[in-house]
Amino acid sequence: MTKNTNIDERIVDLVNQLKPITLEEMSGIKLMNRTDTKFVTNKHKLAELLKMVQGKYYAQFTNESMIAEYITTYWDTDTLRFYFDHHNGRAPRQKVRVRTYVGSDLTFLEVKTKNNHGRTKKKRIEVPSQEVKTVQAEADPFLDKLVHSSLDAFHPTVQNHFHRITLVNYEKTERLTIDFNVQFHNFETQADAQTGDLVIIELKRDGNVYSPILDVLRHLRIKPSGFSKYCIGSVMTNRHLKHNMFMEKMVWVEKLVGAKLERC
Predict the structure, then answer these.
(1) Eight-state DSSP code of residue 117
(2) What average pLDDT score do residues 33-49 get?
(3) Which of 4, 55, 138, 179 has the highest count of CB atoms within 10 angstroms of its CB?
(4) pLDDT, tens digit (0-9, with 9 covering 90-100), for 113-130
(5) Which sign, positive or negative, has the C-alpha torsion 148, 152, 158, 161?
(6) What is the DSSP string of 44-79?
(7) What is the distance, to the nearest Å, from the Cα of residue 33 to the centroid of all Cα atoms in its chain?
(8) How many domains does the chain have?
């Protein structure tokens, strides 16, 4: 049994020890004054975190599992407008993506907008599948309203595939999404890449209400850190892409996971 197999099994075991909460029960949690904060760590720290939140957090339970599977395809312009807006620190900025919740067989066309104050809003419409071109008549008005372009202005660039654990504190004032086993595929270069032991955590909480998980994160020395799956996935799967603004992030993540994130 390999080292990675051991830690993966440990994570599954710890998640299964948490009390379950259904998607229907989750829908009743309204975070009206929401703030989002990202953290980046590795699987060994994640196992410690899951041990420390026992008795304080629920785990979302969907289709007989507490670990969900996601597939996301990012769409961009021929000049990679959305990638370079992020790379150059532009705000407000947007991303267009198609996300499939594999377990529930639901797919949405989504537009994420980050404003000048660091707040992110997401708008979406349901579509039949990742083949969003089949519903262009529905997609065009949606995109025109939010990004002032039709679907023809974009094309699929990078796809990711990952697993997610979603935690909710007992007081139901915050949600925590935990993404791992992230893999990338680039439609332009046909390159694939994996992120090893990388774990991406996002805390969504109701304003400045006390957060139990922040105490856990501080104890584990897991600090806030921005991380874009689209941008890092683009860098890892296209060696010719300008990425100087992400170089420091890449080096830091490599130290964190103890392995080099190869550019393909």
Answers:
(1) T
(2) 89
(3) 179
(4) 988 877 788 899 999 999
(5) positive
(6) HHHHHHHHHTTTTEEEEEBTTBSSEEEEEEEEE-TT
(7) 21
(8) 1
Q: What is the mean pLDDT of the chain?
A: 91
Tokens of 241: 């892409």
Residue with tokens 């039949």: 128
In a domain, 123, yes or no: yes
Residues whose CB is less than 8 angstroms from the CB of residue 124 and which lie 6 or more positions away in sequence, other chains included: 108, 109, 110, 111
CA distance 39 to 60: 20
Residue 241 lies in a domain: yes
- Three-state DSSP at 118 gives coil
**Cα 28 from chain centroid (whole Å):** 22
Residues 6+ apart with CB under 8 A from 236: 184, 193, 195, 261, 262, 263, 264
263 domain residue, yes or no: no
CATH code where residue 106 lies: 2.40.320.10
Residue 12 covered by a domain: yes
Placement of tokens 């404003």 in the chain: 115
Residue, of 177 and 24, whose pLDDT is higher: 177
pTM of the model: 0.92
Looking at the DSSP bridge assignments, the partners of residue 100 are 71, 107
User: What single string gives the DSSP state of each residue in 165-226?
Assistant: EEEEETTSSEEEEEEEEEEEEETTT--EEE-TTEEEEEEEEETT---HHHHHHHHTT--B--
The residue to which tokens 């949606």 are assigned:
142
pLDDT band at 227 (very low <50, low <70, confident <90, very high): very high
Residue 4 is predicted with a pLDDT of 66
Q: What integer pLDDT is reported at residue 1 of this predicted model? A: 43
Model confidence pLDDT, tens digit, residues 145-165:
999 999 999 999 999 999 999
